[in-house]
Each structure stands twice: as structure tokens, then as C-alpha cells.
Specification:
CATH architecture of the largest domain: Alpha-Beta Barrel
Number of domains: 2
Number of helices: 12
Bound molecules: 3-methyl-2-oxobutanoic acid
Radius of gyration: 24 Å
Order of helices and strands: HEHEHHEHEHEHHEHEEHHH
Strand order of the largest sheet: 1-2-3-4-5-6-7-8
CATH class of the largest domain: Alpha Beta
Strand content: 5-15%
Largest sheet: 8 strands, parallel, barrel
Distance between the termini: 60 Å
Number of strands: 8
Helix content: 40-55%
């Protein structure tokens, strides 16, 4: 196990890492996963809207509600104290108006107990990000493939395959930086596009399917641990196959119950001898 960080990670700590140390982010959605991520020594725990899929079974992240994410944030904030906690603003919690975006971002901090929020969008969300930052809430941007709207357009192709597309991604990145974000996620884009962005913004980039040039990396908890049976995108590296371990364990338990070998003596409680004898006597009388 990796040594845990000794003090609370702040957005300034994340900013300082650019160019000197890689940033490690993982998602978590409940108390135990947050505790384990903290023990593993990650810098940032993201309560991603991907929780809508891996925890709640929605087809895409588009369907998860603010209240659902809020519940996940509360659980994570009880489980992890040291990493920077980032809550992911779900679809339509920041798109309707800037005022609503600021109010909802505030809920993440006040009710959810997280330290910062993340939202998807580039140039068109510059004013929204600026307003949330002005309210004092640290913002992590998210550009490239943006799953909330990608699901609606069925457009999951890798971004930044042409020079023009890479240049548009850089425009988005510059807007996110100008607005005051302390970092940004780059999702599903060519390594060339991610490198262009990383070299041309002063805030750290955190990649998922965006190659090695990014200042940090993020993976979804369930993907990293092999807790999902679905086909994974190419960028997912599985560090464990927990599905198999869990299924094997539950199958063994089922087998033990069916054969009567669980609970064995060591898992059972008994009366003191005298009480057992009294009970026997009582039983005789009852016959
Ligand atoms: O919701 C999520 O898990 C994310 C990551 C993929 C960055 O946004």
C-alpha cells in the first residue's frame, strides 16, 4: 500500500504539480471506495457523473440527477479527508442559466462536502466557469469528448484527429483557463491534441484516453478494478479483476449455504452449559 498524503490536498497543490509531478485522480462514489482511494494515496477523488452508470445502472451519464450525485458526494466526503474531492455537475445542472449553475455548484460544497466542482464544456461555458470561480468555488474543466452530450448525439469518436479539430480543442482549453479553472480533464482525444493543450495552458491537464503528455491521469474506479463486465474503451487499463473475485466468493458462500457447511462452529454462538441443560429440561416438559 502506498503511503497516504499527510495534509489535505488543495487546488493550489494541484496547480503547483504542473511540470514537476504527475497528478493521480480516480473516481469514487461511496464511503468504502473513497476510503480505499485515500489509502492508496491518490491526489484527487472525483465523484463522477459516471456514478450514474456504474452505481445506478443508467445507460449514460445524461440521466443522473443532481440529488443522486449529491448523495454520492456526501458518502465520499465521509470516506476520504485528504485527497481533493471534486463533484461532477450533472447534465442540466449548469446549462440552463449562470445563476442556477452557481447555486447548484454551491450545493456541491455546502451539502455534498466536496472541495471543487467539475463541468463539461469549453468556450461556450467560459462565463459559467468564471461565475462559479467568482463565487469562490474551485472549478475543474472537462473538454474533448464530453459524455453528457456525446450520449445524446451518439458521437463517441476520438477527438482531435485533424489539425483543425486539435486547434478547436486548444481554443476550448484556453477559454477554460481564462475563466479561472484550476485544472481540466481531457477526455478521449489523440495524444497530439492533448500534448498541444498541455504545452499551451498553465493549468494542469488530467487525461483519460488522451495519452501520456497530460499532467495527470484519471480512471473510473470500476474500470480500473475490473468491476464491470461491459466492453471497455481501449484507454482503460484494468489493474485487477475484482468481478471474478467477487463472483467466486459469492458462489462459494452460496454453495456452503446449500450444503449446510456455513455457518460452521466457529461462526456460531452457544449458551453456557447450565443454561443449555435447563433448556433441555424445558424442552422435555414441552413434549
Ligand atoms: O464522470 C466521470 O467519471 C468523469 C471522468 C471520466 C473524468 O467525468
Amino acid at each position: 500500500m502506498v503511503e497516504t498524503v499527510s495534509k489535505k490536498v488543495t487546488p493550489h497543490d494541484i496547480l503547483r504539480k504542473k511540470g514537476s509531478e504527475k497528478i493521480v485522480m480516480v473516481t469514487a462514489y461511496d464511503y468504502p471506495s473513497a476510503e480505499l482511494a485515500e489509502k492508496a494515496g491518490v491526489d484527487i477523488v472525483l465523484v463522477g457523473d459516471s456514478g450514474g452508470m456504474v452505481m445506478l445502472g443508467y445507460e449514460s451519464t445524461t440521466h443522473v440527477s443532481l440529488d443522486e450525485i449529491m448523495m454520492l458526494c456526501k458518502a465520499v466526503s465521509r470516506g476520504a479527508k485528504k485527497p481533493l474531492l471534486v463533484g461532477d455537475m450533472p447534465f442540466l445542472s449548469y446549462q440552463v442559466s449562470i445563476e442556477e449553475a452557481v447555486r447548484n455548484a454551491g450545493r456541491f460544497v455546502k451539502e455534498g462536502g466536496v472541495d471543487a466542482i467539475k463541468l463539461e464544456g469549453g468556450e461556450e461555458y467560459e462565463s459559467t466557469i468564471r461565475a462559479i470561480c467568482r463565487a469562490g468555488i474551485p472549478v475543474m474543466g472537462h473538454i474533448g469528448l464530453m459524455p453528457q452530450t456525446a450520449a445524446l448525439w451518439s458521437s463517441y469518436k476520438v477527438r482531435g484527429r485533424t489539425a483543425d479539430e486539435a486547434s478547436k480543442i486548444l481554443d476550448d482549453a484556453k477559454a477554460v483557463e481564462r475563466a479561472g479553472a484550476f485544472s481540466m480533464v481531457l477526455e478521449s482525444m489523440t495524444s497530439e491534441a492533448a500534448q498541444l493543450v498541455t504545452e499551451n495552458v498553465r493549468i494542469p491537464t488530467i487525461g483519460i484516453g488522451a495519452g501520456l503528455a497530460c499532467d495527470g491521469q484519471v480512471l473510473v474506479y470500476h474500470d480500473l478494478l475490473g468491476l464491470q463486465s461491459k466492453i471497455m474503451p481501449r484507454f482503460v487499463k484494468r489493474y485487477a479483476d475484482l468481478s471474478k473475485i467477487v463472483i467466486d466468493a459469492i458462489s462459494s458462500y452460496r454453495n456452503d449455504v446449500l450444503t449446510g457447511s456455513f455457518p460452521a462452529e466457529e461462526y456460531s454462538y452457544h449458551m453456557e452449559k447450565e443454561e443449555a441443560a435447563r433448556l433441555q429440561a424445558l424442552k422435555k416438559k414441552m413434549r
